Amino acid sequence: FNSVHIIEPFNLEKKLFGLDLNGTEVIPGEYLFTHKTDILSFLSGAFYLTWVPVPLAFALYLYFKNKKLLIDFSFTFLLTNLIGFVIYYLYPAAPPWYKIYHGTELNFSILGSAAGLIEFDRLVDFPLFENMYTRNSNVFAAIPSLHAAYPVVVLYFGLKNKVKWMSIIFFLDILGILYAAVYMLHHYIIDLLLGWFCAIIAIFVFEKVFNRKYQKTFLD
């Protein structure tokens, strides 16, 4: 419904986080991918695969261990997605790989791309990410990054669940996904920060509005 933004996020990323690469200022994703290694590519791909399985596994755990927290987690997860979808439609934006591979020309016929994740496919000798992303019809939805938002929600409720080892794993998963998103040219750092914003707002709204209302109703 609104104009797709291709050059604006790229320029903002370069202005805020630009790095020098052989005398040329580049975005962090370009810098990191230029220095790619097989180990980093494999780990990045592995972490990037966790963004949905980890929340699902945590939800399954809560189903057996803490159903009240499962309801809270599920509702906050829903709010996070709704906020993200609103921003998608208000500000449709191209991911870094689109600008790098296709320039600034808007072309709705271009298929999604695995971008740097193709390195993971090469290492495992299977077109896993290629098959996933070439079927992606939502190419211009880089902002905000739900890859960044989901782990924050998981970590928050992991901390509320008070299982220390689990929270440590969730925190490491956040770091891995954030690095992978930039390294594999799927997101700008600004996308990730806005993803965090979605998660934080969803948590705040749940805790200060819905959860408080439910608690008051229950106590009354």
How would you sum up this structure, described in words?
The protein has eleven helices and two strands. By secondary structure, the protein is mainly α. Strands 1-2 form a two-stranded antiparallel ribbon. The N and C termini lie far apart (45 Å).
Throw out a few tags for this protein.
single chain; 220 residues; mainly alpha; two-stranded antiparallel ribbon; 11 helices; globular
Strand and helix layout:
Blueprint: H1 7-17, E1 19-21, E2 24-26, H2 28-34, H3 38-48, H4 53-65, H5 67-90, H6 96-102, H7 118-124, H8 128-133, H9 146-161, H10 164-183, H11 189-219
Helix pairs in contact: 3-7, 3-10, 4-5, 5-9, 5-11, 9-10, 9-11
Précis, in short:
70% of the residues lie in helices and 3% in strands.
